[in-house]
Amino acid sequence: MVEIRFLAHVDREKCVSCPLCENVCPTAAVTLPAKGAKAEVVDEKCVACPNCSGVCPVDAITLVPREVPLRLGLDATEEEEPAIVALCQKAHLHPQQWLCLCTATRVREGAAAVLRGATTPEEVALATGTRSGCTVYCLQPTLRLLKAHGVKVVQPEGYRWYDTSQTCWDVPEAVVRKYPGHFLEEDLAVFRKA
User: Which pLDDT score is estimated for 194?
Assistant: First the structure.
């Protein structure tokens, strides 16, 4: 369970209606509803990451304390364990691996969110509380879980995120055989355990 104690606040007098804040929000909480409109924050979607305030060129966004903390998270034990393990294996992740270091969220929680119907990184973040810290590390395993579940993930236009990073699972078999001293087969055997 992640407790979000802050909330992004837009100073409408300072806001210059650029889309930068909207394009870095990990949960689509910051929006510009129309061209030339001032940025708005959907309170129940804001996970208080510093992305919008950090990217704003005129310092129009600050993080302010919430009146009531927002609690995000789910109980992965409510999902069938074999289904969680199968999805994690297909994504080449271990259920006990960290999904988000900043919130101490395990991959099994992200897998449970996907099995419950999350189809975007934003939906996984709102179900688990991930992407409320650095917003970078947890995106990669989240994308892996979604893709392993058959979700076609499309990066929203203008957003700043990258597709899944290269792992030992992506090394061609010919390279593994050519460089036996790098122990890639052994690494794969370790990661295959769930």
Answer: 53
